[in-house]
Amino acid sequence: MTSLRVRIGVLTLTLLAGLAAPTADAATDPATGAALTPSLSASSSPTVEERRLDGAVPQEILRRSGFDALTAEFARELGSAGSYAEARRLVLREGSALWRRAVERAQGRGPQGGDLSRDDDRPLYWARLTMTRQARTWTPGFGLSDTRRAALVDTLERTSRGQTTVHYPHGRKLKRILVTGFDPFTLDQDIRISNPSGATALALDGTVIETADGPARIETVVFPVRWKDFTDGTVERALRPYLRKVDLFTTVSQGRVGRFDVERTNGAWRGGSGDNDAIGVTGTVPVRDPASQPQWTTTTLPYAEIVAADTGRFPVYDNTQVTEIPAGGTTPVVRPDGPTPGSIARAGGGGNYLSNEIAYRATLLRDRLGLHDVLPGGHVHTPVLQFGTGNTNPATGTVTDPGFVRNRLDIIAQVRSILTVAAKGRGLG
């Protein structure tokens, strides 16, 4: 506990600097200079996503991981905050502590807190929502404007997702890899759902892998499954400071049953499926400088080497399929071998949901920074994380089982192997 508090104290200095510089597009908290993310509602009512907390499954996950104690303590401390400055210091500290606690739990350090397996990403997800709901609905004894309330929620979001603590030690011999994951989604279909990309982020954050070209340190961040956050630039805000500094990056999400896919092409189109706030959006992916926006971006990961390697139990495919409206046409056409010249995107290899969009945004940012030819990066879809035999019914099933845990651990291990191959394939030495 003492070492954790020391690390948090050091991190707070970094966080205060990192949260103080507003982006060009963001509103700014007049008290602190912190950039506000417009996607975070200033309303004091819980969001659709936060209202799922009241179900039995989220509460069981929190209880069986010990994260319920963390959120209860946060609620007590928030309730006793006597000023906005005090509340802000609290959310800075506790948001980063929540991320670190989740990482340490996943990597076998610190208390397990209950009988849920350590590789489980769901305690972090439900604890974060508990804390954002507490901040959103809190009625302090002092005046709290909508702008300042939004700043508190924003700080919780960023710090508890690892977005403010990416750190690579100095030294030329240590290569740098950046990996992203996602929250659980499709929760209205099965609220028990875990996301193996989020679990992978927790398992790999701060770890070092040995490649043929020497050691490489992995840093990770996690993103929400919400269209509006992406519209408001959460991906670029989190990744822009690091892409010039890393040797390889991979965005990761959950894809199809029984297989990994390295997505060759990403499309500039949103297909409209509902997100974790039950909002669907259709249209061209909104980015800065849309006049120069391409319809397609491509991976620079060494996909041939990844596919050829023995990385684990699941097969890995080089997925080249897209859906396009051909030049001069009006009807979408599925192309198995990638887009044709002048076509309009309707789906990348990874579809037209937020997994495609994070891949599109990250690779577009890579290209706009002039790094296309020097920085390997792209998207990897993991297999769907399935529950074990006899535990597939959401209404009657349990929140975990041995097959479920084994599947998640195998996916995590295979992502690690894929990263090792990718580092070797692009000769990071």
Unreliable stretches (pLDDT < 50, length at least 5) are 1-41
- In which range does the helix fraction lie? 25-40%
Tertiary shape: globular
Radius of gyration of CA atoms, rounded to a whole number: 21 Å
Q: Largest beta sheet, briefly?
A: 7 strands, mixed
Give the mean pLDDT: 90
Q: Which class best fits the helix and strand makeup?
A: alpha/beta
Continuous helix count: 13
User: How many β-strand stretches?
Assistant: 16
Please provide a written account of the structure.
- This protein has 429 residues and is of the alpha/beta class.
- It is 38% helix and 16% strand.
- The protein has 13 helices and 16 strands.
- A 7-stranded mixed sheet has the order 4-5-3-6-16-7-12, with helices on both faces. Strands 14-13-15 form a 3-stranded antiparallel sheet, with no helix packed on it.
- β1 and β2 form a beta hairpin.
- α3 packs across α6, α5 packs parallel to α7 and α8 packs across α13.
- The longest helix has 24 residues.
- The chain is globular and about 60 Å long.
- The N terminus is likely disordered.
Question: Which properties best describe this structure?
Answer:
disordered N terminus, 13 helices, 16% strand, seven-stranded mixed sheet, alpha/beta, 429 residues, three-stranded antiparallel sheet
In short:
With 429 residues, the protein is of the alpha/beta class. The chain is built from 13 helices and 16 strands.
